[in-house]
Amino acid sequence: MRIVSWNWRKLFFNQKLTKRQFLTKSVIFALFALLLVLAWRLPSLRAKAESDVAGQPSQAQARLLPVETFTLEALTAYRATRAYTGQVVARQTSDLSFERTGKLVELAVDEGDRVTRDMILATLDTQALRATQRQLQAQRAQALARLAEMQSGPRHETIEAARAQVHEQRAELALAGLQRRRRQQLVDKGVIAREEFDAADAGVKTWQARLDAAQRRLDELLAGTRREQIQAQEALVAQFDARLAALAIDLDKSVLKAPFAGKVARRLADTGMVVSAGQALFRLVEDTRPEVHVGLPPHVAAALTPGSRQSVRIGPAVHQAQIARILPELDPATRTVLAVLTLSLPGESERQHVVVPGQVARLDLQETIDTPGFWLPLTALTKGERGLWACYALVPDAEGDASTLRTESRLVEILHTDNSRVFVRGLLQAGERVVKTGTHRLVAGQRVQALP
């Protein structure tokens, strides 16, 4: 004992210490200071712990995970917005061409130009047609003059000339008869030969024939032109009129006009080309009031009525449209019924959004589906068994107090998705409380505490 006390005295009061003795001395002083601090703070720490234990719940209850919940409400149907995709189509699109072959001498418009109805777009060379027209007009004038002559009848001078010719032929016939009688007497006396009498007899017959022809000519002039001849001449005039009308049609077809107002989408020919009948020169598109063609399921199309107004989204803008017609046939490729909507004239706020044929259009329709189920937020869903979806319903915990609940997995079937919520059906009951968020932190059978 004496040796120990001496060592302690030597350790604390010796002025010259070794390095090891110095370290030992420092540790002892630190432990002594720590003991003094603990002795001073121990009563206050004990009092604080007792107060905390009295004012807080039990340790098991403090470990319960708080969850946000909501109460299920049973529904017999739900309304869903279905978007059906279609296309903007021009009411009229035409590849314009001539109906006859010819040389293209003028193009009045170019691509992108706006045209009005009956505006001249192109012209063919018509020199040959003009020459033929003048020839037919001259022949028609000649036929008309002949017809007028027939309808007026022969002139008085012509009739008098024919009558004079009859008198002349009658006088000649009388002279020839007299000469024949003389030749007959001479033949009977044997003065002349029989041949001279035969010649006189032939002369009588010749003048008789001439008199008959002159008389018929006079009778024809006195009777006037026959009705059949006038009708034949009238038919000839009508033939010339028909040929001139056909030529006028060819001249009219030498000028290509716009059948409707619109814009020239494409130009397919140049000046100087020889184009054939039916060869496209321009593609003209009517862009004043375009249409929207949308394919709809038959049951959806049956619920629509022509004339009803709908909203159509084209690009960033929403346009008002009216159902013009619904086709009665089913498209064999898409198995849909085509609905045609006419876009209304754009307002001041919509004029900046140009509608061009070929754009994609979406028709939004509200449908009511008669199916019982529940609306759930997307955050309430979790992966279930065999790839199905599930949610956590809260049921009372038999081993805990009234505020302690237990999670129970319920499989559900998603019927419709609407932005941040889904309409489901499954093993759920109206009035049950379901976990709203934080399902990734939960498992089936876990004890939780519902937030108020």
From TrEMBL:
One of its GO terms (molecular function) is efflux transmembrane transporter activity. Residues 130-252 form the YbhG-like alpha-helical hairpin domain. It comes from the Bacteria. GO terms for cellular component: efflux pump complex. InterPro entries: HH_YbhG-like. This is YbhG-like alpha-helical hairpin domain-containing protein.
